[in-house]
Amino acid sequence: LPGYHPFEWKPPLKNVSSSTDVGIIDGLSGLNRSVDEYPVEAISKRFRYDAALVSTLKDMEEDILEGLKSNNLEEYLSGPFTVVIKESCDGMGDVSEKHGCGPAVPEKAVRFSFTVMTISVSNNIRIFEEAKPNSELCCKPICLMLADESDHETLTAILSPLIAEREAMKSSELLLEIGGILRNFKFVFRGTGYDEKLVREVEGLEASGSVYICTLCDATRLEASQNLVFHSITRSHTENLQRYETWRANPYHESCDELRDRVKGVSAKPFIETLPSIDALHCDIGNAAEFYRIFQLEIGEVYRNPNVTKEDRKKWQSILDKHLRKKMNLKPIMRMNGNFARKLMAKETVDAVCELVQCEERQEALKELMDLYLKMKPVWR
Q1: Burial 76-103 (b: 16+ CB within 10 A, else e)
Q2: Ranges under pLDDT 50 in the chain
């Protein structure tokens, strides 16, 4: 829990109290209630964003001083230190009481949290880098609410004050005593810890059944199915905001369909800035699909006779599926999914597949490939 540490912002944060001794506050505080507004009943608790960051930095005091020392930097360097923060938000599913005696009420919860990824000084010298950025040990929850992540009104009502604090911190510097010396910190926020469902919700995109299939670019389902390879990341928070304005104002007086095509499915006001990046799940799926294909080609020894028929391919796939089912208890699936992908990408799988591969050299190569893959996995996982 954040302890009470004195700190100051230069310039002071806009619309944020300058008192520094704040602990857990009601998640609904800072909400402007107007008479006709949607009543928010959700139970929610949070920290003030800046106080939580200060508390985290104070916890990391030793790491910061150690980092300065190991980079041969002055121990009394005052900064500016640049802190990169990864933001995450996800629904926590059903948290209702399982064995209580009351009525069965579905209780969903949502958690917003952050992780300090790196701290660097001028010339981009990193004095701290989180070794396990996906571990729950370094993930600091900042807001908890008993609400459904699909409940847009409650989500926006509770997270808006938090986001306002974040926006204020982007253009200000924190003055905080670390190791007995007043130092200044700048914060960079990266919203990469959101799953697709939440990205769509907070960035104002249509829900996942939309013809605009992608949260990274403007492709429709049809376009995506015709071109599976060449896409680049084009969507951004700023663009989504502009498109929402277009959707709202309809400046060209278009029909509903024309307008929707113009804004590529942005139809609500984006309220949290996320960083469009390919998520770990789809990295897993893409890589596993490729390995699954390689396994089949190796079973069929395609490197020897490259002209193969469709029947051959089907035969190899069924051999592979049967073998994986027997050896790994991996049931064949229609379409690659996350669970299958993660089970497939293991040393045991390659050992099993190698039993079907004749050439020892190819066996070694396959094992080496999987080994490399598993070593690289922490890059995106």
Answers
A1: ebebebbbbbbbbbbbeeeeeeeeeeee
A2: none
Evaluate the omega torsion of the peptide bond into residue 11 and state whether it is cis, within 30 degrees of 0: yes
Distance separating the N- and C-terminal Cα atoms of the chain: 27
Q: What is the pLDDT of residues 327-342, one digit of tens each?
A: 999 999 888 888 999 9
How many other C-beta atoms can be found within 10 angstroms of the C-beta atom of residue 310?
Answer: 7
In the numeric block, the tokens 């253009």 are attached to 171
Computed from CA positions of residues 216, 217, 218, 221, in that sequence, does the dihedral angle turn out positive or negative? negative
The answer to whether residues 287 and 345 touch, using CB atoms and an 8 Å cutoff, is: yes
Q: What is the dihedral of CA 140, 141, 143, 145, to 10 degrees?
A: 170
Domain ranges of the chain: 7-194, 207-263, 280-379
Determine the Cα–Cα distance for residues 280 and 275; give it in Å rounded to an integer.
14
Per the CB < 8 A criterion, the answer to whether 119 and 83 are in contact is yes
Give the Cα separation of 107 and 324 in Å (integer). 39
Amino acid at 185: F
Global pTM?
0.80
Cα separation, 321 vs 295, in Å, equals 10
Give the CA distances from residue 26 to residues 159, 211, 214, in Å, rounded to whole numbers and listed in that order. 12, 39, 36
For residue 324, the one-letter residue type is L
pLDDT digits (tens, 9 = 90+) for 300-310: 999 888 888 99
